[in-house]
Amino acid sequence: MRTVGVEEELLLVDPDSGEPRALAAAVLARAAQDGGEDDVFEKELHSQMLEFATRPQSDMHALGAEIQRCRKEAARHAGDVGAVAAALATSPLPVTPKLTTNSRYEWMAREFGLLPREQLVCGCHVHVSVDSDEEAVAVLDRIRPWLPVLTALSANSPFWQGNDSGYASYRSRVWARWPMAGPTGLFGSAEAYHRLVGDMVATGALRDEGMVYFDARISRTYPTVELRVTDVCLDASTTVLVATLARGLVETAAREAAAGVGPMPHDVSLMRLAAWRAARSGVRGELLDPVTMRPRPAAEVVGALLDHVDEALVEAGDAERARETAESVLREGNGAVVQRRLLEERGSLGAVVTECARRTQG
């Protein structure tokens, strides 16, 4: 059974107004004082953000429990310094991001100008174990067309600087501004993958391999494939769904490669359009079918993904729960739908943020 780990980025906000607060250093210091398992927390590009990483898990129920525990611990430590933690992929309210003091982040600010200074976004990264770099590249080549469906399910960033962006996942559009981010072409081999990464670093535009922001990449830290296309999800059950589908995709792709089934040869230009469509529509409207690259209702495309990975889900014991959660997201809406509904009901973006902070804890 392949193991799965999740990294989530949370937004630190004022408990009353909902405005982001630059308190990550204080929250991390509080977590360090507390000891225990709280070394899961890390700083991020902006000091209004807090990241945590779960341990690798083979059981999705255990993964869900750990995500909930980490979210509650983040909320507790944030509360100790006068903030709350919210699983929001962008701040609904206007914000002036504050860069974390760090030589790496300062280098990025010098090299990329305004881009990192204004990019306060919170994502979710899923790590799935692989046996080798060759298997990892075989997986990367075969999961490409399916990744936008994960973006659509996770979409949780409809607002930007106090306005409705018109997107379900505006975070993904902001993230796409990085010149090294986005979908990739077919690699074919681990040698070709590493050669491209080396060439990218050699341009001088990247500080190191850690700045290769592909939609999915070989982790330089763990023996995993890292999927990087999803917003941080408002509901932890959606995070578990994304992680479950990610493992299903990796397992299915590895089996296809072993059986000699080649990857779909879609051009990167089509991949970018599929990613844009997913960010725009979320689970409302249409997505691009991963096989045909033609529009289909989102529910049908999500169903196609579930069918594509069904064998892997059944063998892992995840099929029933994955389908139930996916049906719930399609019926009730993802985080973007919930945020817009809350704005209609409560009348202010501040109220949206504070309610989302409450829901973050489950």
Automatic annotation (TrEMBL):
InterPro entries: GCL_type2/YbdK_subfam, GCS2, Gln_synth/guanido_kin_cat_dom, YbdK. Keywords: ATP-binding, Ligase, Nucleotide-binding. It comes from the Bacteria. The keyword Cytoplasm does not apply. GO terms for molecular function: ATP binding; glutamate-cysteine ligase activity. Its EC number is 6.3.2.2. Pfam families: GCS2. It catalyses: L-cysteine + L-glutamate + ATP = gamma-L-glutamyl-L-cysteine + ADP + phosphate + H(+). One of its GO terms (biological process) is modified amino acid biosynthetic process. NCBIfam families: gshA_cyan_rel, PRK13517.1-1. Belongs to the glutamate--cysteine ligase type 2 family. YbdK subfamily. ATP-dependent carboxylate-amine ligase which exhibits weak glutamate--cysteine ligase activity. This is Putative glutamate--cysteine ligase 2. It comes from Streptomyces griseoaurantiacus.
